[in-house]
Amino acid sequence: MVKFSTRCVVACLLTIGMCFLQYNLFFRNFKFKWWIDLGKGEKSHLEKKFPSALIVGVRKGGTRALLDAIALHPKVRIVRRETHFFDSNYTLGFDWYRDQMPEVENDNEIVIEKTPAYFTNEHVPKRVYEMNPDMKLILIVRHPVYRTVSDFTQVYYNKLEQNKTLPVLSVEAFKTNEAGIEKINMEYKPMTNSLYDVHISKWLKYFDLKNFLFVNGDVFRANPLRELRKVEEFLGLERSITPSQLVFDYNKGFFCFRKTTKVRCLGLSKGRKHRSVSEDVVAKLSNMFEEHNQNFFRLINRTYSWE
Ligand code: A3P
């Protein structure tokens, strides 16, 4: 009888022990799974965020280089491709736009998008304002004559690639009016894109000048850090980009950018040799842009030496 009850007690203890072990294993497993889930949960705290700053233009002003350079800042996340949301993709809606955004880890990180076509599209200022009246707007400007030649060079090579008829700047750029006077051809985009006064006045109907930062593209190209300090300040970021992150490439003749160990230069279409333009045409372009430049300086309350 005693032997039987001893066996019973041992069996019971063994069963309890097994149950405890099973429970413990299950519980630890559960805890482990919960920990993984939590890990995943933390990851999902990375969320897409709308931009608080836009590089709106100007086309061929150095927009790509400026975006890549400001991306060196640890608190800046950029949208690498041009979304064209506020001009051509507006009907796709804000969910689509958000999908294009990078993920941020916390609220201190800011997102910047660049689409140079925004500056010259008449619908964009209102749309941007309606989305965020405090949007920070960065405009990198460049000497309008060289901007036009650069724009023309890009159009020329695009047409060459597509086997299309190749344009001649002196033919496309000007139009003779009824009085026989040669004027800017207002239907030719490489020309009208350089009429900064025309475009900025549309933006100033919605935004104050304080929403804008004007970056001097001609200075930025040769000395990026000087202009980048202004961008950091404008975006409310501490100074973080260092000279060692800006690496001058003597072959290319331009700065490249070092984020970690890798140095990234812009593609071949940036900083390529311009199509040659006669001095006569350059002088004509200078004359025609002069009045627009003065108007632009008045509107933005600062001047550039674009003689
Ligand atoms: P060019 O090709 O006429 O030299 P965007 O990116 O807005 O299209 O501007 C292109 C221009 O950026 C180039 O025009 C070039 O002059 C300028 N740029 C400024 N910094 C540059 C850099 N670090 N690398 C390449 N191009 C740069």
UniProtKB/TrEMBL annotation:
3'-phosphoadenylyl sulfate binds at K60, G61, G62, T63, R64, R142, S150, K270, G271, R272, K273, H274. GO terms for molecular function: [heparan sulfate]-glucosamine 3-sulfotransferase activity. Disulfide bonds join C256-C265. Signal peptide: none annotated. Keywords: Disulfide bond, Glycoprotein, Transferase. Residues 53-269 form the Sulfotransferase domain. The active site is at K60 (for sulfotransferase activity). Pfam families: Sulfotransfer_1 (PF00685). It comes from the Eukaryota. GO terms for biological process: heparan sulfate proteoglycan biosynthetic process. One of its GO terms (cellular component) is Golgi lumen. PANTHER family: GH20068P, HEPARAN SULFATE SULFOTRANSFERASE. This is Sulfotransferase domain-containing protein. It comes from Caenorhabditis elegans. The gene is hst-3.1.
